[in-house]
Design goal:
2 domains; 3 strands; mainly alpha; 3-stranded antiparallel β-sheet; about 55% helix; about 10% strand; 6 helices
Length: about 160
């Protein structure tokens, strides 16, 4: 090799030789390990594209949720990657939803404007109103909301006056 060729194609200082698998069992193991890695990666990509477990399973060609359970049990990095992929999808979906809402606001869509102001501006946030048959002005009202299984049952005002919903 002349000097010009040496500049174009430098030789490594030390050659590293990796042993090649010698048995067919070793070759099968390497092939199966690579297929498994590719399936897991396809599943993670599916989460990023679809945002759902079933959509990601279909994207990766995984037929059973039990397979995912095995992946999670045997590979903690897989579980971490799965959580990160869901977080990435949610961040992207939220970003797209806000962008879509802002497009409607730019087009002067009244519902979109009202929706945005109701949720983002303290000045325009809707206030709760309570109707009562008490005449005159009520001073020092204390409101207690009693919930039962996430259903509003009573609104109690000043002890003995109750409004049922």
């Amino acid at each position: 090799m002349n000097k010009n060729e040496q500049k174009l194609f430098p030789q490594p200082e030390k050659m590293i030789f990796l042993p090649l698998p010698r048995t067919s069992d070793e070759i099968k193991y390497i092939h199966l390990r690579e297929r498994l890695r590719a399936k897991k990666q396809a599943y993670i990509e599916g989460i990023k594209k679809t945002g759902t477990v079933s959509g990601a399973m279909q994207y990766a060609g995984i037929k059973s949720r039990g397979t995912l359970g095995n992946y999670r049990e045997n590979d903690k990095n897989f579980e971490i990657d799965e959580i990160k992929a869901f977080e990435e999808f949610e961040f992207l979906a939220e970003d797209m939803a806000i962008a879509g809402l802002l497009d409607y606001i730019k087009d002067k869509d009244l519902q979109a404007i009202k929706y945005y102001l109701d949720r983002r501006s303290l000045k325009f946030r809707p206030r709760g109103e309570i109707e009562s048959n008490v005449k005159g002005r009520i001073e020092n009202v204390q409101v207690e909301i009693i919930r039962n299984n996430h259903d509003l049952k009573f609104i109690k005002i000043e002890g003995d006056q109750s409004i049922r919903r």
